[in-house]
Amino acid sequence: MYKYALFGMSALAAGTAGASAQTLDEVMARGELNCGVSTGLAGFSAPDADGDWQGFDVDFCRAIAAAVFGDADAVNYTPLSPERRFDPLGSGEIDVLSRNTTWTFTRDMDLGYRFVGTNYYDGQGFIVPTDLGVESALELDGATVCIQTGTTTELNLSDFFSANDMSYEPNPVETNAEAQEQYLAGSCDTYTTDRSGLAATRASFENPDDHMVLPETISKEPLGPVVRKGDEDWAGIVQWTLFALITAEELDVTSENVEEIAEEGSDVPEVERLVGRSGDFGELIGLENDWAVNAIAQVGNYGEIFDRHIGVDTPIGIERGLNAQYDNGGILYSPPFR
Amino acid sequence: MSPPSPGPPQERFRLSMLIYDQRYRSLTIQIVFMMLLMGFAAWLVDNVITNLRAQGQDFSYRFLWQRAGYDINQTLVAYDSNMTHARAMFVGLLNTLLVAVLGCVLATVAGVIVGVLRLSTNWLVSQIMAVYVEIFRNIPTLLWIIIFYTLVTIDAPAPRDFAGDVPLAAAWFGGAVVITNRGVYIPEPLFANSLGSVSLGLFDVSLDFAALVVVIIASLYANKKLLDRASARQATTGIRPVTWWKSMLILFLPVILALLALGFHTENAELAGFNFQGGVHLRSSLVALWFGLGIYTSAFVAEIVRAGILAVSKGQTEAAASLGMRPTLTMRLVVLPQALRVIVPPLISQYLNLTKNTSLGLAVGYMDLRSTLGGITINQTGRALEGMLLMMLIYLLISLTISSLMNVYNSRIKLKER
Amino acid sequence: MTRHDKAFVRDAIVPERAPPVTESGVWKWMRENLFSSWFNAIVTALSIYVIYSVVTGFAPWFTNSVWQAGSLSQCREILDGARGACFAVITERWNQLMFGFYPRALYWRPTLTAALFLVAIAPILFTGLPRRMLWFSAVYPFLAYFLLWGGSIWIPVTAAAGFVFAALAFVILRRLLPLVAPVGAVLVALIWWLTLAAPVAEDLSWIAPVELQFVRSDRFGGFLLSLVLGLTAISISLPMGILLALGRQSDLLIVRMSCIVFIEFIRGVPLITLLFTASLLLNYFLPPGTSFDLILRVIIMVTFFAAAYIAEVVRGGLASLPRGQYEAADALGLTYWQAQRKIIMPQALKVSIPGIVNTFIGLFKDTTLVVFIGLLDPVGLSNSIRSDTAWTGIYWELFVFIGAFFFVFCFGISRYSMYLERKLTRGHN
Fold first, then answer.
1. A62-80 pLDDT per residue, tens
2. Which of B123, B141, B150 sits opposite C33 (nearest CB)?
3. How confident is the model at residue A10 (pLDDT cuts 50, 70, 90)?
4. Residue A183 to chain B, least CA–CA distance (Å)
5. Which fold has domain A8-121+223-328?
6. Which of A6, A124, A158, B254 has the greatest number of beta carbons closer than 10 A?
7. Which residues of A24-37 are buried (b: 16+ CB within 10 A; e: fewer)?
8. Number of other residues whose CB lies within 10 A of the CB of residue B73
9. Which CATH number does the domain C220-429 belong to among 1.10.3720.10, 3.40.50.1820, 2.60.40.10, 1.10.10.10?
C-alpha cells in the first residue's frame, strides 16, 4: 500500500482498513495483522524487556497471523485501555480485538461488534491484602474498591453490592497498572477485576503471598476475540482459528507433532481435515489449506498457549478449571471440523 | 438647490464584473465561500450517516434515559446506580463545576498574594515569588496534577495506620482534620434541629443552609441601611455617628442566634471499618485536581496581578497623596479600580482555562463530566458520537457563559472617554 | 569688633566625608532591600528560613542520588537506608524517554533532525544571520519529515513540489489575471496533491529508489513525540491563526461569521475533547474505509486549537492599531493584501509577540495531554516504566526529570520572547 500521509488533504489518500466487507483482502494487502491488545496484563498481553508483546491474548493474534500469512510474527499490536478498546475496531484501525473482553448481549447485538467465541471463561473476583482480615467478599461493606472504568466489572460491582445491601466507595482508575499502584499504596482496600487479571496482578507483586483472591465470583465473564460486524468471512476466519486451536488440543495435535501429522497423515478423519490433508476447508474461508497447521505449529494448541503464559507452572499459576476441555471437566467445546 | 447627483454610470452587467468590480467581488467571494462551506458540511454529515448505517447504529439520545448502572464516588446530589445516564451526567457536571470554583478561588487567593509579594521591596521575598511563578507556570498542568495526586495517595498514610494501639499516623487539630491516602476528612456541619430539605426537581435544597443565607443577606442589608443613614447624617451635620458596635450587632447577632436555634454543631470523621466515616470527605482525586489546577493557575494570576498594579502610574498615587488621602484610601479609591480594569479580563480568561482543564481529572479518576458522560456512559452504551457531541456542547455553554459575563463586565468598566 | 547679623556664616566648603559604612556597597543594598524596617527584617528572616529548610530538605535527596542500578530495589540496596533519589531509572530508560520506541539503530535520524532544526530556526530567531539561510528553513519541514518517518524521498519532494507549482502558477497568473492568481495557485497545488503527486512519487521511487527505512508513527514516543507535535503545530498554527484573525475582522459577513464560530468553538471546549474527537470520532466524519495516522490527526487538532488562540491574540494586536494606519494605507492606494503585508501586520504582530509566545508555550505544555489517547509522551512513558516490575514505585525521579525538561524549554522560550520584545521596542524609538 502506498503510504502517503504528509498533509491532511493528501492523507485521505492513505486509506487503510475500513468498516467494509473485505477485511481479509486488506489484511493480505497490508501483509500485517493489526491486533488490539490490553495495555499490559502480565500473562495475557504485556511487552517484554525487548518491547515484544507476549501473552495469552497476544498468542491468539499470532495464531490468526499464522493462519492468514503463515507467519505468526506479522502482527502489529495496538495497546488499548478498556475505555478505548472498541472504537479502533469500528474505524478499521485494528482488525481484531483480542483483549480480555466480556461477551455481552449489548456489545454483541447493539454496538456493531461481533464476538466470535470464548477463549477464556472468567468471572469477577476481589483481591485483598491478607492482613486486612477479610475472608469473604460479603465482609467488604464500606470498603474502598479500585476498579477499571469502562468495563463490565463496574456494573457487576454495583449490582453485587446493592444485592447484598452493602455500601462501597468506588475508586476509578484507567489501567491495570494504575490500579495495582493504588492498591499497593493502600488507596483502596480491594481491587476487583476478572479473576484471571487478579491472578496475573498478584503474580507480579513483590510478595504475592501477602495478598489473596477472595473465594466469591460475582459474575460470568466469557472473554473472547471481537471483530467488526458486517464481515462474516473475516469473522469466520477468526472464529475457526480459535476452534482449530481448541480442537487441536482435544485431538492431541501439538506444535511438536502437527507438521509430522501434516506430512504423514493420521488415522483420525477429523485430524486429517484439521491439517488440511482431506477436504478444502482452507479454501472455503479464503486461506491456504494448511492454515491450521501454520497456526498450531507456530503458536501451539490451546493447551500449550495456556500452559506457556498463565498455566500452573507460570508465575500467574491459573488452574484450567472451566477452561479445560469438555471431556476433562471444563466447558471448552469446539464445534467439529466436518 | 443642486440637482440630484447623477447615479453611477449605467453599465451593462458583464460576467467579469463579478471578479473585477468591487461591488460584486465581495458578494462573489462570499457565495463561493458559502458554497464550499456547505459542501464540506454536507460531506461530513453524509459520511456520518453512511458510517452509522454501516455500523448498524442510529443517532439518538434515548440512551440518556436508560439506567446508568454504575456508581459515582463523589455526588453532590442524590444519585445511585439505578438512576439514568442523564442524572449521572448531571452529577458529573456538578463535580466539574465544583472543582472549577474551588480551583478558581485557590488560584485567585494564592495568585494575588504571590503577585503582591512579587512587588515587595524586600528583595528576597520578591525573588522567592519569582521562582514560584516560573516553576509553576513552566511545567505542564497535567504533571502538577499527577504530582499532587502522588503526594496525597502514595505519600499519605492509609486509614489502617490510624488504628491500633500505637497508630502510625495521627489526625490534625485534635481529630478535626484527617489526611489519609484516600482523601482529606474535615468536620461536617450538622444541625440538631434541622428544618429538613425541599426538593427542587433536579436536586434537594437544605432548608438549614437556605435559612442561614436568608439571615445573612438580611443582616447585610440592614447594615447597609445603617451605614447609609450614617453617611446621610454626616452629609447634613458634618458629624458621623458612631456605628461600629451597631454594625457588629446587626451582622453577627442574628447569625449566631440562627445557628443556636438550628442546633449547629460539627462532627469529626471517625475510623469505622475500612474507612473513616462521617465528616466531609474530600477525595484524593478532588484534592489533587483542585491543588494541581489552582496552584498552576495561581502563577498566571500572580503575573496578571503584578502587571495590573504596575500599570497604574505612580502619578496617580502621588496625586492621591497630595489630595491628603491616606494610603488605604488611595489603594481602595484610586489604585485598585484602575488596576482591576487591567486585571479582570485576563483573570477571567484564566478562570476559563482552569474550568476547561478540569477535564484533566481523567488522570486522577475524578468523576467529572468527562468521566461520567464522556467516559463510562459512552463506554457502556457505545454512543461515542452522541456523547462526545453533547459533552462538547456543555463545555461550550459553560465557556460562553463565562466569557459573556466577561464581556458585560468589560463594557461596564470600560474607560468612559470623551 | 564686628557685629554679625547672622549667627553663623559659612566661609569655607565643608570637606567631603566618606559615607557611613552602612550606606554603601553590600551593606547599603541589604539595608534598603532586606532590612528597611522591622517588619521587613522579620520577613527576610522568615524567607531565609524557608529557603534553608527547602534546600536542606531536598539536598540529600539529590546529593545521595544513585545513577547506576538495574532496578529500584538495587537502588535501595546501594542507598542502604539513606534518603536519596534513584536517577538510575533515567540512565537506564534514557533512550526510551528520548525516542520512545523508535528503532534503536536509527537514533541518528531524530538526532540529526534536531541538530538541523537548530540550523533552520537560527535565521528566524536572529536577524543578524545571512538571509540566504532562510531557504534552508523553507526546505527543512520536508527534510525533517523524510528523516523522521523515512520511506521514499519522493513523497516529501512531491509534496514540496506542490508549493513550488503553486508559486509558479501565482507568478504566471499575476501577469494575466491578477485577481484570480491566488485562487489559481491554490487550485494548482490542490490538483497536484490530490491527483498527480501520489502516482508521480510512486513512479519516481521506482525509477530512482532513494529511501530510508520507514518508521511507523506508533514507534514515536518520549520527548521526540512532544517536540514533533509541539513544533509542527506551532509552525502551522501561526499562519493559520493570522488568517483566522483577518477573517474575523473581515467585512465579508459569511467569512467573518464562520471564523467567529470556528474560533469560539475551539476555544470553548477543552483540548482533551478535541483529542478524543481525533482519536475516536474522526472516522465517523470521514468516508468509510479511510483512516489516517493518529499522530497526524493529533497534530491537526492541536494546530486548530493553537490557531484559534493565536487568532485572538492577533486580533488584539490588530485592534490596538489606530484607525489612521488603515486609512493611510487606503490613501496610498494599497490593496488589502499589500496593506496587510506592509503596514498592518508588522505592527500588529509586534504588539502580539508576548501573547503569541505564551500561546506557544501553552501549546507545548499541552502536548502532554496526548497521553490520554494512548500516545506515549514522557508522561505516558513514566506510567509504562512504572508498570515494569523493576521500577514499580518510582515516582519523583521521573517527575523531576520530565518537569525539568519542560521547564528548560518553556523558560527558554519565554526569555527569548522578552529579548525579542526589547529588541523590537528599541528599534522603534
1. 999 999 988 988 898 888 8
2. B123
3. very low
4. 10
5. D-Maltodextrin-Binding Protein; domain 2 (3.40.190)
6. A124
7. bebbeebebbbbbb
8. 21
9. 1.10.3720.10
